[in-house]
Please model this.
Amino acid sequence: MLQGLHVKNFALIDELEVDFSEGLNILSGETGAGKSIILGSINFCLGEKFSKEMIKDDESFSLVELIFSIDSEEVRKSLEELEIYAEDELIISRKLTMGRSSSKINSETVPITKVKEVAELLINIHGQNESQVLQNTKKHLEILDAFGGRELDELKEAMEEAYHEYKSAKGRLDELEADGKSREREMSFLEFEIAEIEDASLKTGEDDELEDEYKHLQNWQKICDGMNKAHSETGGANDCAADRISYALKELSAVSSYDEKASQCYDMLQDIESLLTDFNREISSYLSDTEFDEERFNQIENRLNLINRLKSKYGDSIDTILGELENKKKRLDLFVNIEAEYDKAKVALDSAFGKMKSVESKLHDKRAEVATLFEKELIEALNDLNFSSIDFKVNIDRTDHYQINGCDNVEFYISTNTGEKLKPLNKVASGGELSRIMLAIKTLQADKDRTGTMIFDEIDAGISGKTAQMVAKKLHLLARFHQIVCITHLPQIAAMEDSHYLIEKQVKDGHSITTIKPLDEDESNLEISRMVGGIDVTDAALNNARELKALATEYKKGV
Model:
């Protein structure tokens, strides 16, 4: 339910706050007072396109806030699916500055698309333009299905599932047919690629080992030169390190018996001599045993070239190449067994089509059943709205083209005068008639529609007298299931109010501003008398207003 509206610096509105109640909330006022501005502020907050003219003159921003109470567990769960978490209250706000706007839900900034998704769960705004959806025959199927309730919804869900299953099966068969056309060429290419990889006999990690060996052989001469020089300096030439250590040992030997420290140094140097002797023996053995293997070097170079060429074609590592090999084998197996796969896919397609056809038939039959009930109840509802000679028909044209919603094209036909043939609704109904027809449809859907709040703007267009009284009664019936906010000029509708608000234009500091205020019983009577008699409120007009209120009260007690 829409609990409250807060508007600041919007068009002619300086600042206003209004709390709405359950039931039928009536908004009235003189032509030009700003009723459209109130509705415009709500539409703006819920995502309507904006212009900088919405900002009140001499102000830098506009702000609109809508406060909703959440008392439906179903709505709460739907909000959570949108990642909106609300306990008992939800606030939607939108602020407009020069050239840009920002929206928030419960103080968290959200994109305007999220606001629109949330708004669809909470509020339905029915203006004159919405009645025009009846002129779009594509919407007629949606209206009929909405009337059908849960049983029809379940069939539609089954149809959607069957349709997707069919499309998937058909896509698989189409893919196999396309594969078949290029089968021989691609099989030949796959066989070549598989042989190319298998002939290489790749092993995981061999490229790293070969790279190390290749690097060694590539630098063999540098290694040998370095080892020779090291050997020459330590033991392979005159006056080398070994000779110098031998001379040093002789000097320490002569004095080691006289000094403990000298003896320790002598022992340490003997260890060094021993290590150096082992080092020279090792390096000499290495130099005598090693030689450059040119054949092995060429083998490694060729192997690495092969591996790198395969990497450039199939992946950046041997594991990736081997993975591609398995994929290509599976692809080749598919081609080899394509006839069996094709037969399997065709069976799956036939099965999916049969299931879809069966579900579509049930859906069509259910729609025909729902259409009969819809025709009957809508005619009764339209009679209540002073369509005295109404005839209405739901035409269901079944096609051979399967879609996600089945094969039905639905169009409404109507006759509003005795003796006239039924004709397409979008070609014969006037604007005022469309508004009443839409109101009748919403009344039929009242106990099925979970939207908490409905706003009606100018539902009274083109009607008066008895018809206005009937529209008022329908709005009251609708208000038993939903909170209704209705902008009206008609006293008959205003008299049916559960809460009454007056929209006025005033002059403040030389500027026109729009205000709204709740009316008590006496104030409501005065406003309704103004709607009855015009500017001058006469006793007769006031008595007429009281009589309308009394009749409305009596009607509400009896319903």
